[in-house]
Amino acid sequence: MMRVKRNQEGVFEVVKHELQHNHPLTRPEWSHLHRSERKISNEKAKAIEDMTSSGMRATESYRYLAHTVGGEENVGHTIKDHINFINRVKSRSIEGGDTVTLIDMIQDQAEEESDFFYKVKMDDEGRLAHIFWRDSMMKEDYDIYGDVMVFDTTYRTNKYELICAPFVGVNNHWKNTMFGCAFISDEKAETFEWLFNVFKKSMQGKTPMTIFTDQDLAIANAIEKVFPGTRHRLCLWHLHQNAISRFGKLKADSTFKGMFNKCLSGCDNEKEFEECWMKMVTDYKLENNDWFKRLYGLKDKWCTALNNGFFSADIRSSQRSESTNHAIGFDANKTTTLTEFYGIYKKTIKQWRRTEQQDEFNCSKAQPDIGYEMAGIVRHASEVYTLTLFKEFNKEFMKGISATSTVIGEHDTTTIYRVTSLMGDKSNEVIFDSSMMLITCDCLKFERFGMLCCHSLRILLINSVQRIPDAYIKNRWTKIAKSKVWDKFGKVSLAEKVSRNIPWRHEITRKFYNLVLRAEKNEDAIKIIEESHKRDSLAIDALNSTKNVDVLTDASSSTKILDPTRSKTKGRGKRAKGHFETSKKKKVGTSNSIQSKEFGTKTPKQHLF
Question: How many CB atoms within 10 Å of residue 232?
Fold first, then answer.
């Protein structure tokens, strides 16, 4: 306390000064909130960065720190300090520009992997327009599973409104596998044409047998130019959702919807489809409906009955690709940078590959449980196919057991059978050559899916065939489909190698943590640890100060690229409406092409072996 009084000369003078405070400066429960008491140490900063990198949100990592030290008052900083620190870390990571940082990360991975591929395209202002990349494992996966591919441009889950465009396939466990990914700035035909050409070059010219997309006309035009020999299929889920909006009053008519769904995927052959379609448009007077007329004109792209002879792995929807966008976009929003998005994407791929390795392990150790003793062709199937595909095989086999068969023709070693289902409502013709072990069925399931149908299995069963003929075992569905790749990569993808320091750091942290737990109740032990820490800290600081560290003045990409223009829209952006989703036809690809610069890795060389 201080008391001041003005004297006779008009000057203030101190007449009393108590050095001891006669009141508390702050409440004890507030002491940890004062600026002087708040600090994020280097050790704590590293822990926060690790938790953030692992995907923990700021509030989650703060709660974890509070739990480990016995409450928020013991953390040493507030939740606001915590969030501000994480934001500063993110800002520092892209100080040279978001796009430059992203490309630096991709180039670093390209230096680690000899078969990594990427391509970047800039617009005339020097801003990022499109970028595509794929790693070494994606190339291996495409070589094995690239007969069928799903491509979709579903969401714009970043602050620049760039479109995430993944190339997705299905592996031998019926799970998603990634072939490559791109960010594109628009959905014009020339953009998709550029992207497909880059993808094709990255895969050494190999093209898929079938590709699934949504109803975007620009994508269709690009596929026709770049993949002329590929069967283009439309996503039935998209088509069905769009059709509902076109039904009008028919939306409440269950009979009409049943007929429409049968036209989509319920017919077994072209004749049945044509009869069903004609009855539908006639009964409901849709002959002059423009949308249904355009839809019928593209029937080869969506009607399953007209695609039975083309391999599609029985995929009917591009939702496989949309599930990829959903998995990646789960933690992405309108403020997500490209660098953050790339990190989320890589974590998703790692998770897919860990799941794949678990599936591979399960197939090597586990035996399928089907409720009866396996013998003959069923046992052979369990040895050949993965667990997921064997379940599909067993379903077909059980249908074959319940079916009936009659001989309708014979010639030398070839016999023609009529196989009828248990309900007697459907029958199929099967031709079996016992000398050549060749079998065909007019349901075309093998051609479509790569596995024998119940009708063929019925005939093999009554002919006492104990093994699936080699000609009808598609390698992509077998347990050994990827065995050579696992051997090549030493069970771990090159892209998934981690720093040697990370396992050591975790191991030494665990050792010292256990040491602290053993010493915390013993004053002498605590003193030993504190003295040891002080002594070792001084020794390490002295050691580090003697080392000459080379400082790179510019570690960023030599090609400077500006970030795309930031979007100011609110909410989660979705893909622009496709060809069938707009009432008016729009001209596609008529805009002037942008004079742009392009760079990336060289096209991989083809090898004979």
Answer: 17
